[in-house]
Design a protein that fits this description.
Elements (H helix, E strand, L loop, with lengths): L2 H23 L4 H38 L2 H49 L3 H8 L11 H41 L1 E6 L2 E6 L1 H21 L2 H24 L1 H6 L3 H53 L5 H18 L1 H4 L1 H26 L4 E4 L4 E9 L5 E6 L2 E2 L4 E5 L6 H9 L5 E7 L3 E4 L8 E2 H6 L9 H10 L12 E2 L1 H4 L2 H15 L3 E5 L7 H18 L2 E5 L11 E7 L8 E5 L1
Parallel strand pairs: 3-8, 7-13, 7-14, 9-12, 12-13
Antiparallel strand pairs: 1-2, 4-5, 4-6, 4-8, 10-11, 14-15
């Protein structure tokens, strides 16, 4: 990469960081955020001013020791008490306000990213997009929202305030060090030259060389930190999957396989962490040497003037203190390289996540509108995530009073067609009109952890429905035994059997009484008697409400509840799509 490419990459990184940072300080919380930021900046400036006073105190105190001046000695000890107490107050409130700003910034960013991730089914479309083979898609969005945002806000504030501190400290002490340095006389080419402020130039040279070496030693940490966060999230995600599918894994006796998978992920995690530790070890070798040498360096340079009598002990200690502050300021990059590497990796992960969400917002999708003439599609074409066409140019219509059953072999696009009706399938073109009062019943319904009443009313709040309505819905779905458990809390998706989950999903439909119902294998886990009873009640509800029922089902017994049939079958020519739909 040439210098122009590096400059362009640096500008791009700054733009991405700016795009992540500024929204909070321009949001509805901007005045609180800005006030906290200003207060923290002022406290940092106050801390630097106290360091300047402490530097002056060094000269006066050690001069008093050298002269055995007890009056000045005790006066300076009393002054030290005031200075130290002021520094303590500044340190405490700087910590408190910094933590408060980090907390509020993280809370705002978390709410913002959750809204971005959940709006428009971006969370669903991002998962589908993984099947396209795009390796640039962000991994583990849950980890990016939960952990990366926390790291980003923490490191952004600490590093920016540290850099501000370093700059202000440098500006405050460089003049002091310059005035204390005197001149360095040397001969070159038969002529004598005087280098004024040579201690300042020595500090600059010392830190520039150290920063360059630090960058070349420490730069492998950036990709290693990025990969480490991904591997940690992958390991945690697989453990969550084992917990979610614990029953199926136990029935299959698959614990040994899952153990091998977890061990393999953990070994990958440890392998990368070991490489990161080695990279950090190499950097610590240098930074430790750099820091220790900086302690003795000002004494080595200023010792000749002290032993010649040009300066006193107090001035020597003041030079050492001033040099230490200047050197610490210039060595900010050296001291914070590991933190910068973590912050850079976190920033890259968040910006790639933001770009992926934005890409989903821009992605083409079918036009879905609320129709008044029933369920209607116009030139609807469905594709798979890999781009291959599944169904082409579908013009379908379901009117009020209709009942349609969709049949076809596995993989023919039945469920994909329903997803397109619902407006969540992104790999589609065309137009879909669907009545507003429509409810979808998936084959594998989801229920939030919590009370049964919350699971039954989801996604609406349970307080909208009376206990009597909730119990009637459970009874209609053949779950009367659960009517007394409305306030029980549990992980219902994991605890209920497949048939119970499907009946609870139907209870949700009976509770909300939609006019239009799209049922995707909604009774596949039930016995025929229960299925017959529930479909009778479902058909009666839809008819009473003046809507229609569209079902995906394999069992012939359900044909009796539907007057029309859509059959998906393999196209003989396979020119435009893999399957075609025939209406009967």
């Amino acid at each position: 990469m040439n210098s122009l490419d590096k400059l362009a990459a640096a500008r791009n990184t700054l733009r991405r960081v700016w795009a992540l940072t500024t929204p909070f300080f321009s949001s509805d919380e901007k005045w609180n955020a800005r006030a906290l930021l200003v207060a923290i900046v002022l406290l940092n400036l106050g801390a630097v001013y106290m360091l300047v006073l402490m530097n002056e105190w060094n000269r006066l105190f050690y001069d008093a020791l050298e002269k055995r001046d007890q009056a000045v000695f005790w006066a300076q000890l009393l002054r030290f008490t005031y200075l130290a107490f002021s520094l303590i107050i500044i340190a405490v409130y700087k910590f408190y306000l910094t933590q408060l700003l980090e907390m509020r910034w993280r809370a705002w960013m978390t709410q913002h990213y959750l809204q971005r991730w959940l709006s428009g089914q971006a969370f669903y479309r991002m998962e589908l997009a993984r099947f396209t083979g795009n390796n640039n898609l962000p991994d583990n969005p849950d980890q990016r929202i939960q952990e990366d945002l926390n790291l980003f806000t923490t490191y952004s504030i600490s590093l920016s305030m540290g850099l501000l501190n370093a700059v202000v400290t440098l500006l405050s002490f460089v003049g002091i060090l310059w005035s204390l340095s005197g001149g360095f006389t040397f001969s070159l080419g038969g002529s004598q030259y005087v280098l004024h402020g040579f201690m300042v130039w020595a500090a600059v040279a010392y830190c520039v060389v150290g920063s360059v070496i630090t960058h070349y030693i420490g730069r492998p940490q950036i990709p290693l930190n990025f990969r480490q966060q991904r591997l940690e999230a992958d390991f945690r995600h697989h453990m969550v999957r084992v917990r979610e599918y614990s029953e199926a894994i136990a029935l299959d006796k698959g614990e040994h396989v899952e153990g091998e998978h977890l061990e393999r992920r953990f070994l990958s995690l440890l392998g990368n962490y070991l490489r990161l530790i080695r990279a950090q070890k190499n950097l610590i070798w240098f930074t430790s040497f750099f820091g220790q040498a900086a302690i003795i360096f000002p004494f080595l340079v200023a010792a000749p003037r002290f032993f010649s009598g040009a300066i006193q002990l107090g001035e020597l200690m003041q030079i050492s203190s001033a040099f230490g502050n200047v050197q610490d300021s210039l060595a900010w990059f050296v001291d914070n390289y590991s933190s910068l590497a973590t912050w850079r990796a976190t920033t890259d992960r968040l910006t790639s996540f933001e770009e992926s969400v934005a890409a989903q917002d821009r992605a083409l999708r079918p036009e879905v509108v609320q129709g008044t003439h029933g369920l209607v599609t116009n030139a609807l074409t469905l594709s798979l995530p890999d781009g291959s066409e599944l169904l082409a140019n579908l013009s379908l219509q379901v009117r009020a009073g209709d009942s349609v059953i969709v049949k076809g072999p596995s993989g023919s696009g039945k469920s994909t067609l329903f997803r397109a009706f619902a407006g969540i399938w992104p790999f589609a073109r065309g137009r879909v009109e669907i009545p507003a009062d429509t409810m979808c019943i998936p084959q594998n319904p989801y229920f939030p952890d919590g009370t049964l009443r919350d699971a039954l009313a989801y996604p609406e709040p349970a307080h909208r429905y009376s206990d009597e309505a909730l119990r009637e819905a459970l009874d209609a779905a053949l779950l009367p035994q659960m009517a007394a458990r409305l306030d029980d809390q549990d992980a219902w998706t994991q605890k209920l059997s497949g048939g119970e989950r499907q009946r609870l999903a139907l209870a949700r439909v009976f509770l909300k009484q939609p006019a239009w119902v799209l049922a995707d294998e909604a009774t596949s886990a039930l016995d025929e008697a229960a299925e017959h009873t529930l479909y009778q009640r479902l058909s009666a509800m839809v008819k009473r409400r003046g809507g229609a029922l569209v079902s995906i089902a394999h069992r012939p017994a359900l044909d009796a509840f539907h007057r029309r049939r859509w059959q998906l079958q393999k196209r003989p020519d396979d020119d435009t799509a893999a399957f075609e739909l025939r209406q009967a």
